[in-house]
Structures are given as C-alpha cells and as structure tokens.
Design brief:
Blueprint lengths: L1 H28 L8 H49 L19 E7 L4 E7 L11 E2 L10 E6 L20 E6 L2 E12 L13 E11 L2 E12 L30 H24 L2 H26 L5
Helix pairs in contact: 2-3, 2-4, 3-4
Amino acid sequence: MTAATATLTRAVSAPDDSRSRRSGAQRAARPDVPLIGRRLQLVRAVLVLLLVMTGTLLLQLVVISSLQHSAAQGRAFDAFRSDLATGTAPIGPTDAKGRVLALGAPVAFIEIPSLGVREVIGEGTTASVLFDGPGHRRDTPLPGQIGSSVVFGRRATFGGPFSDISELKKGALIRVTTGQGVFEFKVLGVRAEGTPVPAAPAAGTARLLLVTAAGRAFVPEGVLRVDAELDGQAAVGPARLISAAGLPASERVMSGDAGTLWVLAFWLQALIALSLAVVWSWHRWGRAQTWVVLFPPLLLVGLAASGEVARLLPNLL
C-alpha cells in the first residue's frame, strides 16, 4: 500500500516538476527586455524638458499672464482706493510713515477713455512690477507733479495694458488720479524711435510720457512713446530719491529682471528630475501610467519655471 501510494505520488507530481523545469528553461532562454541606452535616455529627457518649457512658456505668456494681470489689478485697485479714502496714498517716493515705497506699490490710477484703459500704476518699472500693470519710473515725478512723469506699460503680455496707445490721436484725454487729486492730460503725439522729441515743458508745468514696445505683439521692434501735457495746474511733489543715472538697469527700457535667477535654477532642477523620471517611467510602467502620474507635476513645475523665465524677458513685451 505504501509503495503504491509513493508510485502514484511520483506519477502525479512528475508532470508538475516537468512543467516547472520547462518554465524555468523558457525563462532562462527568453532574453530580458532591452533597456534604452543612457545617451538615448538623456536625449529623450532633454526633448521632454524643451517641450514642457516651450509649451508652458507659451501658455504663460498668452493665457495665464492675462489672468494674473486681472487678479493683480483687482487687488491693487482695492488697495489704492482704500489709500485714497484714508488719505494715505503716496505722493512721493515714500509712504505716509516715511518708508521707501516697495516695488509694485500702487501710486496712481490711469484712465484712457478712448481706448478703454483703466489701470492701477505701480511703483517701479521692473519686469516683475509690470506683470501686474503699468509702472511708474522711479527717477521721475508722479503724474500731475511738476516735471515729466514716465509710465511704462506692456505691449502684449500680462494684459497688454498699453497695446493700443499707438492709436491715440492728438488731443486725446488721459486722466490720472493720485494722492494729490485728478489730473487730465492732452496727448501731444505718438512717436517711434528716431522721431524728434517735443520741446521741453515750460517751467512749472507737467508732462506725462507713456512708454511701450513697438512692432507686432510678442515681437518687439523698438520703443513707442506717447507724449501728453497737463491741462491745468501742476502739483508740487517731493524730491525723488533716485536719479536717472542711479536707476537700476532692470528698470530701464526693454530690460529683464534677473533678481530671482536662483528661483529659476531651483525649478529647472526639479524639471530636469521630472523629465528623467518620465523617460524611465515610459519604459518601465508604460505610457498611460506615465501621463497619469507625471503630467500634473510636469505642468505645475513647468509653469513655475516659465514664470521665472518671463521675468528675464523685456519689461515692455
């Protein structure tokens, strides 16, 4: 009985052992799925990086920048209206407590009825300040004060508040509200680079100069300027703290803002790591899994990096 049982057990288990041996042999004979070479991995990661940066930068400049501008203008309008109501709106380079105004602090509200422009003007003309709207050049008096005030505005990106100022006609109205009241300017003319500059304003009068990029949208071809003269009595303002010679390079015409390059370096490192992860995941997990898991962080990090790249672009773009 015992011998018969042993024989039966061997007979039953033999096929299983045979199948196990065949399966092991097949696994041994089957070559592993080849992995792509390191050089090809690097090339594909670079392509992913370039694709993400290009796509998110276009998305940033064409779509998201306008939304960012609208949100920033809403906040600035509320803040400036509150300052006007409490009598604390700045009338010079310092606030009511004598502190130097922070870059981007609201200092005026400009209206151009013929173009439908209604924008809060921030202090400073860096690319970062002009993300949120027009900026006041800090080496010039505020609009309505004696002298020539200069205001920069973007041509196409971040809402393009000055996109249509080339259409202004002589005599068109520009209204500016500051902590010293409401001032109305009449346009003297529009001029491109190389066009003769109007004669200097008479003593005790005020001028307003609007500056933006010339040429097609997103393809600047020089600088466009609109000169306007105050129709009424100019106000007296405090002395400026910054001279034309002392104005930082980042606040001059068509300059970028490189003050946050370290932030860009951080986001680029994160994007490089994600690009390598995409290439690895593509061959290990599969395409569908890769896009589901890694596309959202790629998009978010790409937008963060492209936002920093936008600071390096000309401030009038």
